[in-house]
Amino acid sequence: MLTSSEQLAAFLDIATEAALAAGVILQDYLGNLDEIEEKGHPGDLVTEADRKAEIEILKVLRRHVPGHRILTEESGQVGSLDSEFFWAIDPLDGTTNYAHQYPVSAVSIGLMIEGVPQVGVIYDPFRRELFRAAKGLGATRDRRPIRVSKTCELSKSLLTTGFAYDRRQTTDNNYAEFCYLTHLTQGVRRGGSAALDLAYVACGRFDGYWERGLSPWDMTAGIILLEEAGGKVTAYDGSPFQIDSGRILATNGHIHTSLSTELQRVPSLTIWADLGKFSKLG
Ligand code: IPD
Ligand code: CA
Ligand code: CA
Predict the structure, then answer these.
(1) Is 93's C-beta closer than 6 angstroms to any atom of ligand 1?
(2) CA of 273 to the centre of ligand 3 (A)
(3) Helices and strands (H and E) in the chain: how many
């Protein structure tokens, strides 16, 4: 089904209204949290701010698009399960940062239509930066067009990544990738918000991003934002991206093949005792 530009623009405005409403809640609760709970894995936090922001987003969506399917991090699925319109929402991406008042968090609201990310809004309530995109309509920050960086060499790139909450339970925890790519690039940052990681690649602050263990609500908005800004999203090995894999490689396009190649040759951390052997890379 082809959704018209007018329809996509209307969904983008609905997502914006919801994200800004959630942002007000997050600004209000900042530094005023009574309770911080741990969910499944150690360190996986949820606060009253996450829940209240989510309620606000759901209110807006239910008012405008009552028949759509909606997946949110804290409430799970609501709405019609067979709707081709599927919203994936993280009311607060970067909860750990938020709980510590470290100013790197965002509201992330994405819409997939027939499985393809087509509308995305990411709002950072600290910097009050608003990222928006819709398929064919471009990507903006604070309503001004954005583009990915022009960096072509991995050795000149600045990357970002993250570590999922199951990192203590698996050796596939991204530690080896982080160390290896730190040697090959100008640096790898770990901001703590997947949505902002994607938004920052989209506006050229980072050249590339990879991560595993993510959920659709972490990525949907950021994917369309990055694609509309000229970037590329695939699986680690360059094959088509699958949202349910939880694994994403997202770049400015120019370093995509090099980053994908290096991600497939990451040495095991157990052979890192002699770091000197990599000195030629750094
Ligand atoms: C987390 C952040 C973080 C990423 C984790 C996510 P949350 O989301 O996006 O950057 O590394 O994998 O779960 O829990 O703050 O919404
Ligand atoms: Ca998240
Ligand atoms: Ca969250």
Answers:
(1) yes
(2) 36
(3) 7, 15
